[in-house]
Amino acid sequence: MSDSDIVQEFLVESYENLDRLDRELVGLEKNPHDRDALGSVFRTIHTIKGTCGFLGFNKLEKVAHVGENLLSRLRDGQLTLNPELTTALLGMVDAVRQMLKEIQATGQDGEVDYPELRENLTRLQQDGVSPVKPTKSPAHQKVPSSTRERRITPAHMKAKAKALSSAAALEKRAGKKRRKGVRLQPAKAAISGRLSEPPIEEPPPKPGPVRAGEPVISRTDDVLDAQHTLESRSCDQAAETIRVGVNVLDKLMTLVGELVLARNQLLQISNTVEDASLQAVSQRMNLIATELQEEVMKTRLQPIGNIWSQFPRTVRDVALGCGKEVRIEMEGKETELDKTIIQAIKDPLTHLVRNSVDHGIELPEVRMKAGKERSGRLILRAFHEGGQVNIEISDDGAGLNVDRLRQKAIEKAVITAEQAARMSEREIFNLIFLPGFSTAEKVTNVSGRGVGMDVVKTNVEKIGGTVDLQSTLGQGTTVRVKIPLTLAIIPALVVTSGGDRYAIPQVSLLELVRLEADEVAKVIELVHGAPVYRLRGRLLPLVYLNRELKLAADANPAGATDGAVNIVVLQADERQFGLIVDQINDTEEIVVKPLRKQLKLVRTFAGSSIMGDGKVALILDVLGLAQRASVVTVTHDRALTDKAAESAAAAAEKQTFLLFAGPGDSRMAVPLSTLARLEEFPVRQVEMSGSQWVTQYRGQILPLICLNAVLEERRHKQRALATPPAPDSPPIQVLVLNHEGRSFGLVVERILDIVEDRADVKSAATRPSVLYSVVIGDRVTELLDIPAILRNAEMSATPPGLAARAAGGGN
Amino acid sequence: MSQTSQFCTFYLDKLLFGVELKGVQEVIRSLDMTKVPLAPAVVSGLINLRGQIVTAVDLRRRLELGPRPPGMLAMNVVVRSEDGAVSLLVDEIGDVVEVNEDTFEPPPETLRGSVRTMIVGVHKLKDRLLHVLDTEKACQMTEAAENASTGR
Fold first, then answer.
1. Interface check A251 vs B, CB under 8 A
2. Are residues B140 and A597, on separate chains, in Cβ contact within 8 Å?
């Protein structure tokens, strides 16, 4: 129905206008004498008021009316804009927005007519002015002002022209109505009713509606020529852009996606058929499709300024709420992004902005003390880089305190103290993206509830982006969001594994490495069963795609049939890994189709796509794959659960062991990797601390565990502990071992040798504290279980009686 | 009283099943299928239905009916679910049957397990029983389905 069409058009237009109002009002607060801006604000409200009166939304009209009255006084210089007025006006904008929503949902402007708001606006309007009752006699008041305006500069001319064009639009609507034969009469009555009551402050738009039913020509006569030209120019401008429904664009996008697929198919066919004309056609088709795709993508692009435009208002509200002064600056407003992405990053960005104001930027007094400007600076910056869009939100606030963060993380048991000590500053900063982690001293209604930053991160990652945070204490914080330009069509590398094709998004691809069959065995090394490759001197963990996906178990472990190995070097979440695939096919532009609900649980795939030959291929989710690969670590599974049946790969591995003599001339060994140093201590340096033998070693107290004591049975152990080494006995041999960040010394009888061996003949352990027996250098050797030894040692230290006896023996 | 409805029928392991005709998008022969590694076993793979990627659900597995005999090509009954089109793999396509409401009966108490949630009831036809399948439930990958799939 045309009626609802008109309402729809009104809604779209009004929403846009309201967004502009927010911006302009905040701008005006800084520069209250900007008459142009005032005029524009006034006109916006005026148009809304006029249109909704025409459409019969009386409550909305009432609210707009009081706002308009107040604005008209501002515009005429009878009042000056101050924060109170701005807040009231913004309140009115919110009310109008609320009512528009109501109209959108129900077709009615709702039950509420905001009496307090209107009273407040009316009161403000009267403040500081002679006690005239403007609502009652607006015409009387405003006539002079409007005549005065007539003499004003081209800016006003333009304004009027615009008003005129909006009047023309109204007229058009009215005309439409008449053609449809809908009750024009009451509508007209309503228009003229409106005419007599509201101010005549803005004469041109008024005549418009009156003449709604009359020919247009009669009006132009009494309008200035200048206005006329301006009007026609604004019409031209309007003709350059048209509003297109999003669903139309979406459909167009899908069709282009299909076309791209068809083109891919055609290209494949033309490559196999020797036909010059077919090749020429497919070539041209290729070019056209590519260009079409680009253009259609462009229609979906929107400048990021569209969502930024609401931030000045957000910042103002938040800053006012917590008593701060914040200036917002924007760079790269025109940076364009796909519509869906714009929608997806809106909330995360809003959150980041609020966060920056709420606890990034300090209170004015604090800032002054720190020698900064009173008002904080919030900078939004957007730019394209490497096929991605970077968005930065920086503030010059207090910055994050690394030590406090670290402490907090340990308190909340997010990380252990050891992890915390090892983490870099940057890693610590990025902890705030973990769920339930908030650094705010107190919870405000804006932020600090521990939800938010993690949601920001998940939302950004959902669209294939990344978030990174950098901060300097006392100087400010920068959050950098990187997101792809578009999600619909992406370049991808197509690989084959287990007979099926998989697409890998090009964004996570770093390089390709091919290893020839004869070098494979040499260059793929194993770190305790985990395959690695030395890529320019650094170890690159390798992941076999067919193993991860549990494909064809009988496949050649090297991956490829001809023995050569293809490594796709990928980047996932700051970490690199090599993915071994059977075959690398080609790069292709693929159309991403989401996976259905049934397959959402499979994290390894990001979506699916149709290949050139019409078959479906799955798109690998590199991050999901990386997580899967490290969660199910091959090494751990094998070493812990399946000691006896070591895999062929692990068995072929050579290890280096330290051999030493155990009790009763047995041979024992520990992997060299667990060993920190070998030391000799004179016996007099061994001291007693509680029930534990210790020695001072490199400024630390090193607990000593006597191997014989651990291995012998309990009664022997007592004896061993009770017998302190005689002061004149030879120095003791100590293996300094590291286990889970703790050092301890293992006292052994004699150190024998360091050997490299495959250690592939094994049998189960015959006593506790031994992992298993193994043949090293043709002799059966027991491999020590270091964690077990530590556990035993701790237990033996606990019984007080034992300790007392040991101490007594020591004297 | 005599409200009738139309069912698209098909066979699974000699049992006659039916889904409401209005929920059926189309019926097609076996298509090239892409396996989805790590997916629940009831998901046979993905098929390309004229540019639309559709998940194929093996109804035999879903209804715990044992594997399809080798050499038998499955037919696709493409149904519209709330999450887009889904293809149900069946053994053989039957007729479109019009049934009367009063031949309907809910499943017997003795029908248990996850299958019960998918079979709404039966229509007593002259010579056999028509099992009425809840397509929405059949397309849902519940945890039960996941667990059933572990016996791959």
1. no
2. yes
Inter-chain CB pairs, A–B, below 8 Å:
69
CB contact under 8 A, A599 and B39: yes
Nearest Cβ partner for A616 among B39, B43, B46: B46
Please indicate, yes or no, if residue A462 is contained in any of the structural domains: yes
Q: What is the CATH number of the domain that holds A422?
A: 3.30.565.10
How far from the centroid of its chain's Cα atoms is residue A390's Cα? 11
To the nearest whole angstrom, how far is the Cα of A608 from the nearest Cα of chain B? 8
Distance between B2 CA and the closest CA of chain A, angstroms: 37
Summarised one tens digit per residue, pLDDT across range A163-177 is 445 544 544 444 444
3-state SS, residue A411: helix
Taking residue A101's Cβ as centre, other Cβ atoms within 10 Å add up to 13
Q: Are residues A194 and A310 in the same domain?
A: no
The domain of A702 spans 654-810
CB contact under 8 A, B43 and A598: yes
pLDDT score recorded for residue A630:
66
A572 SS3 class: strand
Asked whether residue A603 carries a pLDDT value surpassing 90, the answer given is no
Q: Could you give the angle at which helices A154-180 and A184-196 cross, rounded to 10 degrees?
A: 150
| B46: chain A residues, CB-CB within 8 Å | 608, 616, 618
* Shortest CA distance from B86: residue in chain A: A596
- Do A660 and A605 lie in a common domain? no
Mutation for testing the A interface, residue in B32, B50, B53 having most A CBs under 10 Å = B53
User: Which residue range(s) make up the domain with B136?
Assistant: 4-149
The total number of structural domains in chain A stands at 5
Task: Mean pLDDT check: name the lowest of A249-253, A397-401, A444-448, A627-631.
Answer: A444-448
Do the domain assignments include residue A369? yes
The pLDDT of residue A476 is above 80 = yes
How many independent structural domains does chain B possess?
A: 1
Nearest in space to A702 (alpha carbons), one of A719, A685, A722: A685
pTM, entire model:
0.45
* Chain centroid, CA A556 distance in Å: 39
Please give the Cα distance from A758 to A755 (Å, whole number): 10
Cα nearest neighbour of A260 on chain B: B51
| Residue A617 counted as domain residue | yes
Q: Do A598 and B38 touch (CB under 8 A)?
A: no
Domain boundary among A587, A616, A641: A641
Q: Do A419 and A477 fall into the same domain?
A: yes
Name the pLDDT band for A561 (thresholds 50, 70, 90). Answer: low
Final residue in a domain of this structure, among A300, A318, A344: A300
Cβ atoms of residues A797 and A803 within 8 Å: yes
